[in-house]
Design goal:
mainly alpha; 3 domains; three-stranded antiparallel sheet; 373 residues; hpI Integrase, Chain A; 10% strand
Length: 373
Amino acid sequence: MNKFERLKAKIKGYNKGSYYKMRLRDIGEEYSIYFELRRDGIRDIKYPKLHISGNTTPTRADLEAVERAREKQQYFDELYKNQELDSLNNLTKKKSKVIPFFESRRDSHKEKNTRKAWNNAIKHFREYAGEGITFQDINNDFCNEFRSYLLTKVNDYTTCTYFSIFKRMLNIATAKGIYIISPAHQIRNVKPETNRDFLTLEELRKLKDTEIIEKRKTMSPDVIRAFLFACYTGLRISDIINLKWENVVDKDFLNIKVTKTKRFLKNKLNETAKDILDDQKSEYPEREYIFRLPKGGNNINLHLKRWTEQAGITKHVTFHTARHTAACLSISGGNSLFATSKILGHSATKTTEIYAKLIDEEKYKAMDNFPKL
């Protein structure tokens, strides 16, 4: 047995009687140390950001890393032991009913759309589990089965939303000492394929030149201008609806508090966006809000459906298509992913990367359209 094998045997000895087992993961030229807990159907992993070389003869740094890992292992074990004791003391909490707790969490939200989503999640949970379900009835298997049930009732995207709310509720219950680790801790949510259709510059020009005639009157200019404005700013419909003239600073900048994220966003207006604002100001000089849209997203999207059909565009266009379009216009115009992410108000460029892929796909389709020699 060489010295590295003896070090592994030492780690194995540390694991005896420990809740969190010290593991080594081969990551090429070295090993990453991590801890794994498996208990009562729950799995938890912790990464202490410690590495060893894996040399046949461990270095001093390797030995020190293992000793630091041992200290962390003891810390995690003690923490888990205390949580387990707290859980026993909170047994009465675990016997309490879930739905009243679920509803109390819903009531803490003020946003109308957020409350609606929580209401729907509670409705499906009640239909699946019944009114009398308690926290002690919920384990890993229950969570998996509830997710599968949701998939039979609603589409992937909605399942993702409702199951995320359910997991959030369990995390809050865990923070209050009802669980040591949430029963849904290691359960992955559904990852739906989202529709990210976007409009090309040519299609936008077609739309701009197309006037929709309804049965009784011309389509509201507000819907047309609001959609095009969103295509050139990347704003969501919630922010378009709430947009006031006071949000326009020195005619060149938008300064808003984003409805979804609650973060402040300041963006420079491009010439197209400024032209649209000039048209709105000229036509509706007395308004406080810049755009006045029909009530309800479905009504707005119905207007857009008629408008795009009239323009000869076959893509499925909703108001959110404008945000996708803004991202693709930005990237195809030469802006970096970082700059585009800041325009859209993304917290990281990872969210923005999908639009670069969309641009590539559009480019590949264009290459297929080349005539054969």
